[in-house]
């Protein structure tokens, strides 16, 4: 008994000592939650958490608020020859974290790793790449076979365009160590956390604190508990460690700072007329759309944080097009449209002896809260005489079902900045573009494809009017049903001061933060 008591006492003492040591070690350290280990940080791979790569690897240009392109490793650029030539002036005085200079030679080495490669042909700058000229140590020129739509936007992506030291790759060309030009260098990484410290030779403004710890906490409730307990300082980000609006409200009530950004990702409902005959009728699609209470969805799932959507993209994005007010639910008008389309009777409408039954496929794993949204819509469809069957699937099955069109109705998320508007329009709506992940939001080879192709071929002043024709077609044909603009939610302790939501969901919001010790 005495031995057991002594052992327990020692454990308690060690735990208390560890807590004190942890608190002391946290001085000058920002502790951020991540939902899974950071993964392979090779900027040319597609496995790591984007925001962790953002700490170490920098692009030629950065994507700023409202789509403004800002200098980074390139200080100046000129697009010439109708969009077929890009002249770049590289920043001088930059070194990688291993001391290797960043110059035209190391820049070319990086670009050669992905430009023009089939693996990266989903990017126009890679698809149409022709050649690269080194002018001198700090000037290079890129040549393309055709004008590249949103060229500078593509060069701001997290991957594959960011720069790593040539010494971080082995003689066999395989990625070895994550060494970039960014303000943070990785000092350790395992399945529990990734730890970063200052890159003392960084060319730009250094963060005011010396250390950043990205702590792996897979369970959402455990992340919230860790913030409450003072074990972490910051949670949030759709791709980092998602925070639900309900959790945000609870933390706000508990005295924590909660930052809500309108976001630039849209939740959109897709119609699949290839599987469901009724959906070939625009009147049925419109009836479904105006039969949905978008404000109710915003309240039910997002506690009012999400703005009801009238467009595929919000005005937060460049070239988002003319903004429409979100449809207001109108049961009478929806019912009248169904009557006009020949769907009559109650409680479930029918036509030619067939009931108006549709299946909505959802995946709470892929889109958190989508089951709740589906149940809200299911109840609303019942009021206008549509029997809506909700089928929940896991993340992997959702992708398979979308690709194989095993759904009547389904939810899609647009890609957000910096990929949109062209990323989602091409990947989700152009029939000739191969998309092996999400499938297609809507396609029409005869009517929609020519409009998209014209928009992607446009340059200068012609971009805005040509992509507006794509938006007009989607709107005029009720081809999709935009639901809400998904908010970006972050929560942090009082210790974190000067926090600003990141411009995109792929960035880590470490800049301008000051830690109150």
TrEMBL record:
Subcellular location(s) per record: Periplasm
Top-level lineage group: Bacteria
Assigned GO CC terms: ATP-binding cassette (ABC) transporter complex; outer membrane-bounded periplasmic space
Main location group: periplasm
Domain Solute-binding protein family span(s) in chain numbering: 68-432
SUPFAM superfamilies: Periplasmic binding protein-like II
Molecular-function GO term, any one: nickel cation binding
Record keywords: Signal, Transport
InterPro entries on file: CntA-like, Peptide/Ni-bd, SBP_5, SBP_5_dom
Record-level GO BP terms: nickel cation transport; peptide transport
Family: Belongs to the bacterial solute-binding protein 5 family.
Protein name: Nickel transport system substrate-binding protein
Organism in which the protein naturally occurs: Aminobacter aganoensis
